[in-house]
Amino acid sequence: MSTKPPILEVRQITKSYPGVTALKDATLTLRPGEIRALLGENGAGKSTMIKIIGGLQAPTSGELHVNGAPVVFSGSLDSQNAGISVVSQEFRLVPQMTVAENIFLGHELTRGGLISRREQTERARELLDQLGLDISPGRRIDSLTVADQQLVEITRALSRDFQVLIMDEPTAALNEAEVQKLLAMVEKLRDRGAAILYVSHRLPEVLRLASTATVLRDGQVVADISMEGVQEPELVELMLGKALEAESRDSHERGWNPDDAAVLEVTDLRTAGISQPISFGVRPGQILGVAGLVGSGRAELLKAIFGAQRVQSGAVRVGDARVDTSSPAGAIGSGIFMLGEDRKAEGILPHLSVLENTVISEPQRGLFDPRRWVIGRREERKTFGELKEGLRIRVDRPERLIGALSGGNQQKVLFGRAVLTQCRVLLLNEPTRGVDVGAKAEIYQLIRKLAADGVAIVVSSSEAAELAAVSDDCLVLYAGAHLDTLPPELVTEDNIVAASLGQRITHSASLGAASTSEEVAN
Amino acid sequence: MTTSTSTAPSRGTTVSAAVSKYSLQLIVLVAVVIMAVIEPNFRSSGNIASMLTQASFAGAIACGMTLLIIAGMIDLSVAGLLAVCAVTASAVLPYTTIGGAVAVALIVGAVLGAINGLVVTKLKIPAFIATLGMLNVYLAIAFISTNGRVQPISSSHYHALGSGTLLGLPIPFVIFVAVCVLSWFILQHTPLGRNMRAIGSSEVASRMAGIRVDRVIITTFAISGVFTAIAAVTLSALLSSANGTMAIGIELSAIAIAVVGGTSLRGGNGSLLGTFTAAFLFSAMNSSLNLLGVPSYWQNIAVGVVLIAALALGARRRRATAVPGGAAAL
């Protein structure tokens, strides 16, 4: 435990917006060599706290102290100059510039007033190596996957001199192996004397790293505790203010009938990121998990089925009809819908209301139906009202902009969008990314409910626990190829993790009936 | 505790929100009243009719521009498109009825607009560049087909489309109002308009939501083409002539009107009431400065200042209104 004087003190900070108090009298201290977890549900005030410490927003009242002296930040540069480095949840990378250029953006390495490209490239490579990352410094950001972008964002924070490091959900986009690397890195930084504020929804990480924790609820600090002897349920209870119902894991009551024919049939599909043709089928009511590390082709597989990425060869069928995979509109017409991994960029329409975001994908009406040409507001409000109940979307007025909702509620709106397309196949990529603990459980329930209604569901996730919690069977991809299919009794967190790392599970256990056609495909 | 404190300021914020929402309309109203009081000629019926007429041409085009900008597009080719439509109308008028000539002009406008949309979507060229290229093409077509000469239009009935009145209002203005209302209806009450806003808000997310993005964009360009053709008819009717240079620079007026009216150049948001008001604002400002005897070169400074001031105010307002949504999203 660190007993040194605090580097950073947040003293009774309040931040209010018109009609909303995001933070109220929040106090927090951070000492050298300390990793402090900042916990709370979405909307609890964590991001506001980070923005204030990072100089992006000014508090309504209260003070910040760095090394014992009061400071006022009027921008992120002030905060950086005070020795605070922030790894933000939202990337602040310039997509058109290279990895090295982004890492040194704003504090370029210069020689005689000119940017020294070679030096930057070398230094960037060193930093990337320290993190054990295999990313070329010369690549453009927009050619990287989301996970790699996240890692570059972290590398950028490390490239600056800092005493205080703020990490906002740094592992949200990472797979297990990358997470382990990152956690080791964070521990190393702590041992060197950095003070770290670690924000994450992933409690195992928090339990491993943090020595202290500050818990926020509704903008107020409800606990400032030492993490010694603290267990996960205790933290969840502090965050929610109530105990969470236990997630039933071992009772795998499959809701589908093995005699049913597959509704989604993928045959010999190849696309960028999938090097070996993949075949599989999903039956009505079945929830098929898709596991795999980043780079395994998980995201690409789903995108290709949905027509959001070019299919190089192979076919997708829904029922007996071949799916037009040339565009998402074509796939939607055939009864497929997808919720992508990047809700902000690919999901929500920020200028549109919650209601409009819900109904936007409704199938186009016939030529002579007046509703094709003129919007029926009353009808839409009724539709939305019913959905809102069923999906438990928390919003006071349907006309609110979608951005005003928390991540979990936004995701529920997108589920509503899927429901209104009357899809028979629903593809979910990282369905609970950036969603708080409470909403996560609700989304799992929702997925099961849709499956119970006969929708065939494919869930792709980087969280093994998530796949173990929701999926019946689980497809495992490894380096662009189909490695294994875990039957329901073998879908456990450990098996998924092991399989994702390239271990075949079904060889050692009895080969179930789950994988037949895919064996032929290889 | 938080709920009770949050209800108290909400009543005050609704009033200030309304003032903020209609600030442009309030400013124009106050300015017009002041002008009417200090300058009797300003409130003469002749001047009013002239102001309304002058607001109509760029105004009708600005309606289409508003839709395009909301969808994340822009059309710099309108001056050329207008010229081609006007020249076509003047060429077919001797062989057909006025209705027939107008119909031909509107069809040409729709086709040329759709071509703009096709170039943008199928050749995947940014609208700014694609329509700049098409501006040159359309202007050239207008010049070549007229040999660079002014085409006179002798029909007095056609002339009435530009100079006549309906219900005491200049016909071009009545048509402009109709175009505004139609645009507003498309934007707010049709699935097409909603898709325009969706695409301007996020093209990627729109595609993922199953919107046929290319189709919507081409349709929007075609609609803008029709509105430009409408301006071509009323303007050539007023001038009783058509030629290649008749509307040079009108794209900038139309964009300025849309933007001062509150349409965000980033797409996703816009107001046709704003576009209507801004069209009138520029016309009224022009008339005021003339009546006050301000030399025309100095008038340009005033126009520029108004444009920048409106944008600066708009930016401040956006920052102010962006906060609550952002805060709740944390």
UniProtKB/TrEMBL annotation, chain B:
Q: What is this protein called?
A: ABC transporter permease
Q: Which GO terms describe its cellular component?
A: plasma membrane
GO terms, molecular function: transmembrane transporter activity
Q: How does it sit in the membrane?
A: Multi-pass membrane protein
Where do the TM regions start and end? 22-38, 59-92, 98-120, 127-146, 166-187, 216-239, 245-265, 272-291, 297-315
Q: Which UniProt keywords apply?
A: Cell membrane, Membrane, Transmembrane, Transmembrane helix
Tell whether Transmembrane is among the UniProt keywords: yes
Superkingdom of source: Bacteria
Species of origin reads Mycetocola tolaasinivorans
Compartments where found:
Cell membrane
